[in-house]
Design goal:
This protein is an all-alpha fold. It is built from 6 helices and no strands. About 80% of the residues lie in helices and about 0% in strands.
Length: about 170
């Protein structure tokens, strides 16, 4: 008795929870490692800080989109809203884990302790916005069947983001 092609492997809530926790843990470990070793290698260098941001954005894109794709492959009937929530959840939970780990490492290795809430709230909005952008792009990539429509929607989203950054700062 074989499974049909579109039949889900596991229930939707089990897939979302397992994929979310696993991907958030992986992303937290990656970002914590990038932060920790970047601070140790160069200290306050502006160039190294930019490299760190680029590596963390790449890691976030890779882990969040891969997690959403894995959940979608396991159950193709997951609604787009839940895929979006999964992407947001991975990013926010990873940021929370990374902040907790960073405050613990700073307490153990440096004389000055970094409180968890200070570390968490300092990066909450950037983590939320990056996660939302990656989640929307991934939902478009997974759910829009026509490649021309998919590219048009993704380009439109990037243009809207650029306009928000340029004109929303004023």
């Amino acid at each position: 008795m074989s499974k049909k092609k579109n039949e889900p492997i596991l229930p939707q809530n089990v897939i979302l929870i397992q994929v979310g926790l696993l991907c958030a843990s992986i992303l937290a470990i990656l970002t914590l490692t990038i932060n920790y070793f970047g601070d140790r290698i160069a200290g306050d260098s502006s160039f190294v800080a930019k490299i760190q941001v680029g590596l963390m954005l790449f890691a976030a894109w890779l882990v969040i989109s891969s997690g959403m794709r894995a959940a979608f492959k396991m159950n193709r009937q997951i609604p787009s809203v839940w895929l979006f929530v999964l992407g947001l959840g991975i990013g926010i939970l990873a940021h929370m884990m990374q902040s907790l780990g960073y405050s613990y490492l700073m307490k153990r290795t440096v004389d000055e302790a970094v409180p968890f809430f200070a570390s968490f709230f300092r990066g909450f909005l950037p983590a939320l916005s990056v996660s939302a952008f990656i989640a929307i792009m991934s939902v478009i990539a997974l759910k829009v069947a026509n490649p021309n429509h998919r590219i048009a929607l993704q380009v439109l989203l990037v243009v809207v983001l650029i306009l928000l950054i340029l004109y929303g700062i004023k």
